[in-house]
User: Fold Lysine-specific histone demethylase 1 from Oryza sativa subsp. indica.
Amino acid sequence: WFATDVDNISLKNWDQEHVLTGGHGLMVHGYDPVIKALAQDLDIHLNHRVTKIIQRYNKTIVCVEDGTSFVADAAIITVPLGVLKANIIKFEPELPDWKLSSISDLGIGIENKIALRFNSVFWPNVEVLGRVAPTSNACGYFLNLHKATGHPVLVCMVAGRFAYEFEKLSDEESVYFVMSQLKKMLPGATEPVQYLVSRWGTDPNFAWVLFPATLLGSQLTCMKDSVLRWTNLFFAGEA
Assistant:
């Protein structure tokens, strides 16, 4: 249900999520150290956009945009759900109906981030800063990265339909709007010295999606079916 609008969410299944015990962890140095450690001794090919996956009796052929191909005994598909929904990758033969149905029935939502770096801290030492807005087209909350990292950074989170609309703005317009909301909470807010704006909904590398969701009228089993294997193709992540 995360990052989509309430009128799209299944009332029956919205809370069917296993909540793990313990607190939330923050990767203070980002995911880069983890990725580099996991990537050691692996043959990784960057900038290889997959266009087709061909199934044969005893092999799988992965075709790339530049014309090259890779042959393997099996393949694990970990692309975002939005890639499968957009039919960017062709499958030969086509995926079975039960697999296509599970992909179709799963909803998608996005949550964009506007990271703001300031010269100094002017906000309270709390993890989250929130504001009750008069409409849904306003900032939901700010994450205080200074509390965990020591850097004077706030990250504004926008989700759902508002996040899609937000992507139509330029970086400068996005920051201006976010700062206008922040100044309503903290009138003494200073202007940021650096900023970074994400656009997950229109980024082809992430295929227009950030979070999967159980749609109105769909069953929770579609999320389970979406990761079941098919022949020598395995699906992981949201797919």
